[in-house]
């Protein structure tokens, strides 16, 4: 079995080398700048890693437009670049378990059942366990500081790799897992208390929905407004820096 795994790894590496050997098409610099406005401020090595992972993500996923939407190359670059931002500190992995990206023109409705309750809620994104990532293009394009639907849904995907989307991602060892549980549990309870008391909070209030949303919203802040997250929640920032092997607050070359 180990020999078989090594063969698959070799095939994957060879396939990805072929992807990166292809010439770049179009004005990809402008598109990456649209996806991540502060991209040009990052160090050259970080920009190259992001571009490489963006190209791999585009090539390895099946892209499907929904409700009549045609998914353009520009749209793929924007979504893939925001996903690749999460992989700057991670080598050899490109959300390998995600096979399909479904893109709706705008928010979409999905019927869900919770016991006897049937709801038809409007969604801007979904992450299905062992399934696709579903995104509203209008909301991807309308991201603002601290909010990123691509990062949010892929954070749910990472959270669910152990089969349970519960706000407890898989960490390197038991000590890191225990530290995360302490930091996230205390932060989540404190956020709920502050909101109930009408106090100002840094994280989006949606993070108080449950622990899974707390993790996903924290990931948005980690990549979108890292300096502010590090200032307001240094322990939370440290946990996420360990998980992603990255320090976005220090990526700028200036």
Assign the CATH superfamily of the largest domain. Glucose-regulated metallo-peptidase M90, N-terminal domain
Terminal CA distance = 47 Å
Total discrete domains: 2
SS-based class: alpha/beta
Return residue spans where pLDDT drops below 50 for at least 5 consecutive residues.
113-120
Summarize the structure.
This protein is α/β, with parallel strands linked by helices and 254 residues long. It is built from 10 helices and 6 strands.
Describe this structure in words.
By secondary structure, the protein is of the alpha/beta class. It folds into two domains: 1-142, Orthogonal Bundle (Cyclin A, domain 1); 155-254, Collagenase (Catalytic Domain). Helix content is 50%, strand content 12%. The chain contains ten helices and six strands, in the order αααβαβββββαααααα. The chain has helices at residues 2-21, 28-35, 44-60, 73-84, 137-141, 149-159, 174-196, 211-224, 226-232, 234-244, and strands spanning 62-65, 100-104, 108-114, 117-123, 125-127, 133-136. It has a four-stranded mixed sheet. It has a two-stranded antiparallel ribbon with strand order 3-4. The radius of gyration is 18 Å and the shape is globular. Mean pLDDT is 90; it is low at 113-120.
What keywords describe this structure?
254 residues; alpha/beta; Cyclin A, domain 1; Collagenase (Catalytic Domain); 2 domains; two-stranded antiparallel ribbon; 50% helix
């Amino acid at each position: 079995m180990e020999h078989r795994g090594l063969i698959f790894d070799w095939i994957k590496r060879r396939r990805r080398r072929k992807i990166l050997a292809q010439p770049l098409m179009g004005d990809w610099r402008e598109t990456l700048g649209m996806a991540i406005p502060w991209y040009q401020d990052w160090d050259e090595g970080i920009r190259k890693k992001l571009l490489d992972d963006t190209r791999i993500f585009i090539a390895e996923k099946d892209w499907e437009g929904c409700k009549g939407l045609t998914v353009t190359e520009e749209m793929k670059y924007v979504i893939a670049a925001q996903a690749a931002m999460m992989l700057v500190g991670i080598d050899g992995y490109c959300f390998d378990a995600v096979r399909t990206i479904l893109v709706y023109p705008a928010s979409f409705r999905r019927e869900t059942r919770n016991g006897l309750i049937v709801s038809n809620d409007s969604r801007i994104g979904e992450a299905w366990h062992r399934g696709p990532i579903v995104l509203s293009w209008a909301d991807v394009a309308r991201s603002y500081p601290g909010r990123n639907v691509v990062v949010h849904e892929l954070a749910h995907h990472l959270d669910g790799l152990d089969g349970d989307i519960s706000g407890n991602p898989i960490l390197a060892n038991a000590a890191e897992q225990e530290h995360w549980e302490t930091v996230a549990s205390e932060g989540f309870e404190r956020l709920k208390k502050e909101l109930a008391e009408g106090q100002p909070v840094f994280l989006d209030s949606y993070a108080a929905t449950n622990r899974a949303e707390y993790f996903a919203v924290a990931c948005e802040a980690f990549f979108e407004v890292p300096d502010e997250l590090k200032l307001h929640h240094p322990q939370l920032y440290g946990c996420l820096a360990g998980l992603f092997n990255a320090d976005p607050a220090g990526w700028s070359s200036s």
